[in-house]
Amino acid sequence: MAQEETADSARGGRYSTPSVPELRRLLWTDRRPAGPVNQVWPDLYLGDEASARDKPSLSRLGVTHIVNAADGPRRINTGPQFYTDTDIQYCGVEAADHPTFHLRPFFLPTAGFIQTALAQRGKVFVHCAMGVSRSATLVLAYLMICENLTLVEAINAVRRHRDICPNEGFLEQLRDLDTELALQRHP
Description:
Blueprint: H1 3-12, H2 20-28, E1 37-41, E2 44-47, H3 49-53, H4 55-61, E3 65-68, E4 89-92, H5 107-119, E5 124-127, H6 134-146, H7 151-159, H8 168-185
Parallel strand pairs: 2-5, 3-4, 3-5
Antiparallel strand pairs: 1-2
Helix pairs in contact: 5-6, 6-7, 6-8
């Protein structure tokens, strides 16, 4: 499955949700290095833990909202208290980067948080430890739910700016979302 073929078929109405191996091939083709933080959609940034802790850099970017996809005491324990000296609004998701972790229940609330922030002309920074699996999965879900992109279109949109690699379990959950959203669009 070529990247272009998949995107063309998605736009042409012949789209069907790719298998996990096909998604892996898409993600592993033409890989680009990921910087610590990258703008992957207008006013939507994806990055790593170090960037989330760098308040001066967040301020320079104009970040108004943060989604921590690795929140919690045994993960990246920033929490809203870390940002009390800023005007940043915080959303924490206590997710493990493990294929058996059920991230799907967080897709809709996180997408809503991002959508509300962007509607208020905010800038959103979504992160986990490295900014390639948990946070990338939540950004892909947002693009699918709120921007009406297929999974392949969302992956292609993000990969133009950042190398991502959601784990196999997260890809399966995104596939389920993609199938569900396709049925809603074309009953």
